[in-house]
């Protein structure tokens, strides 16, 4: 993977005590490994073994990384992107803004040239990383590459009907409605596995005809025990991090907050698996009916950081409080984002 190389670029510069502040042209593409030391949270995921909170980068030299990692970097690219990846790698090593030029600038201790060269090299590394996982700014753990994943955003539209034959309240100036529409934006950038599994289920028609159940805090789909979803691990992107944590919750009391908060009316999340809270349900999702009157300090839900949130209601928030137990999802369809869905056999 390209990550060790990006780490070495900064570590090597740092070891020579060149005092500069690098400028990153594409900060949203840069994973946590791009900083000298980063706060890391422990995780139960074997792919993310528990680590100290302060994790410093390896001091392996830049030239060693460049030589040793070339084959593994190029091998990690999809077949149709290997040619482009090879061109980028050649540019990274010997190009005008590549590593050789950066090394010369570092040895000359020229802060201005180092700053420009560092940004250029990291930019190229970021492009290679995006080829490794198209659409995402981070690499998924290897054991999760056999899951569907959504590499961007999508929109799902639900048509809801009353189970008892009654109607929904009319829109302004309109008539009573036998059915109502709810649209949800699904965020694969922050929860690619959870969003990917959900979108695949929608495309497969798994939610068509599903009954809904209501509590004071949520509208839930049925458990779907007869449906074939994936056992996706709990997936939460912490604020300030560049990749999700898997199979671990956040400690809100310690200031750990998710990029996709639950504490929003109409937030959409997966229920927990009946087997383990380290996994989400393969099928059951819920609309969260956030109420600040029932929230904790700072207005955060007591369940914040405990569920895989993957989207938000953008149309039909007024419908959510009208839904009662027994109402039905007549249909669920993906209206935008199918081109961003990657299925296992397409990886």
UniProtKB/TrEMBL annotation:
Q: Which InterPro entries match?
A: Cyclophilin-like_dom_sf, Cyclophilin-type_PPIase_dom, CYP37-like, PsbQ-like_dom_sf
Molecular function (GO) terms listed? peptidyl-prolyl cis-trans isomerase activity
Keyword GTP-binding listed? The answer is no
Q: Where is each PPIase cyclophilin-type domain found? A: 167-324
Q: Which PROSITE patterns does this entry report, sorted A to Z?
A: CSA_PPIASE_2 (PS50072)
Superkingdom of this entry's organism?
Eukaryota
The UniProt keywords, alphabetically, are: Thylakoid
Write down the PANTHER family for this protein, in alphabetical order: PEPTIDYL-PROLYL CIS-TRANS ISOMERASE CYP37, CHLOROPLASTIC (PTHR47318)
Identification of the protein by name: PPIase cyclophilin-type domain-containing protein
Write down the species: Quercus rubra
């Amino acid at each position: 993977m390209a990550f060790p190389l990006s780490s070495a670029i900064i570590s090597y510069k740092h070891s020579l005590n060149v005092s500069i502040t690098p400028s990153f042209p594409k900060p949203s593409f840069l994973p946590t490994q791009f900083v000298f030391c980063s706060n890391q949270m422990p995780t139960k995921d074997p792919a993310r073994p528990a680590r100290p909170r302060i994790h410093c980068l390896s001091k392996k030299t830049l030239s060693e990384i460049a030589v040793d990692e070339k084959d593994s970097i190029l091998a990690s690219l999809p077949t149709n992107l290997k040619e482009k990846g090879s061109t980028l790698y050649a540019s990274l090593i010997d190009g005008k803004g590549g590593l050789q030029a950066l090394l010369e600038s570092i040895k000359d201790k020229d802060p201005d040239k180092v700053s420009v060269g560092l940004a250029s090299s990291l930019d190229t590394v970021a492009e290679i990383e995006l080829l490794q996982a198209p659409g995402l700014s981070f690499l998924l753990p290897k054991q999760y590459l056999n899951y569907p994943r959504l590499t961007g955003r999508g929109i799902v539209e639900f048509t809801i009907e009353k189970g008892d034959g009654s109607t929904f309240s009319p829109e302004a100036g309109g008539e009573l409605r036998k059915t109502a529409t709810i649209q949800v934006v699904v965020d694969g950038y922050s929860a690619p596995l959870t969003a990917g599994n959900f979108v695949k289920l929608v495309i497969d028609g798994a939610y068509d005809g599903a009954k809904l159940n209501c509590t004071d805090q949520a509208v839930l789909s049925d458990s779907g025990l007869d449906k074939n979803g994936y056992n996706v691990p709990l997936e939460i992107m912490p604020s300030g991090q560049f990749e999700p944590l898997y199979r671990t919750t956040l400690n809100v009391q310690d200031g750990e907050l998710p990029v996709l908060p639950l504490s929003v009316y109409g937030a959409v999340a997966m229920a927990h698996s009946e087997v383990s809270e380290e996994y989400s349900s393969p099928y059951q999702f819920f609309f969260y009916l956030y109420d600040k009157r029932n929230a904790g300090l700072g207005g955060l839900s007591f369940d914040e950081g405990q569920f895989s949130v993957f989207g938000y209601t953008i149309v039909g928030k007024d419908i959510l409080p009208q839904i009662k137990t027994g109402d039905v999802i007549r249909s669920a369809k993906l209206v935008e984002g199918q081109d961003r869905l990657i299925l296992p056999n397409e990886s």
